[in-house]
Amino acid sequence: MEYLKQRIRDVYDFPKKGIVFKDLTTLFKDPRGLHIIGWDLSQLYRDKGVTKVVGIESRGFIGGSILAFELGAGFVPVRKPGKLPADTIQASYDKEYGKDVIEIHRDAITPDDIVVLHDDVLATGGTMAAAYELVKSMNPKKIYINFIIELSALNGRAVLPADAEVTSLITY
Ligand code: PRP
Ligand code: MG
After folding, report:
1. Per the residue annotation, which of 7, 32, 79, 96 is the catalytic one?
2. Catalytic annotation on 7?
3. DSSP per-residue string spanning 35-81
4. Domain ranges of the chain
5. How far is the CA of 51 from the centre of ligand 2 (A)?
6. 82 strand-pairing partners
7. Which fold has domain 48-171?
8. Options 59, 133, 157, 165, the catalytic residue
9. Between the N and C ends of the chain, which has fewer C-beta atoms within 10 Å?
10. pLDDT at position 153
11. Would the pLDDT of 31 be above 80?
């Protein structure tokens, strides 16, 4: 885990003054770092029968794809509005200023699926809570929730459902 932590870059005052941004690009560009992420994420779900990994646009696509590949599962994107070509369902959630919307294809998940919902960072939890609502509405057998980084000071876990086992590789 130290290897991963050492490769995450702190960027001060991004996206605005006072915020210390945890930049994962410096970890993803490191070949061994990327390999370890794929391995460590997949170890959490080896024996769980996962059939689909749902990744949240855009930074959740990177770890989500690697995890799906490692597990031999399929990959499903949750996207910002207007990007998915076929019939979608939507959920809105509160951002700092106003509301945001995410979408998933209406036929992306079926009741026989076991799903891992993945994103890069858990901050306030608003994005993941909305994504969970979308996936839940398609009635899969089980939904797990997973992040690479959890910012525990923001207490995002509080808005995530109690029955989804929430795991994070790295907690700050
Ligand atoms: C960031 C991050 C998570 C989300 C976490 O994404 O990648 O998806 O915010 O915040 P929350 O827990 O407070 O909802 P962002 O919306 O900046 O978009 P991006 O992934 O496309 O960069
Ligand atoms: Mg994101």
Report:
1. 96
2. no
3. HHHHHHHHHTTTTTT--EEEEETTTHHHHHHHHHHHHT-EEEEEB-T
4. 48-171
5. 22
6. none
7. Rossmann fold (3.40.50)
8. 59
9. N
10. 95
11. yes
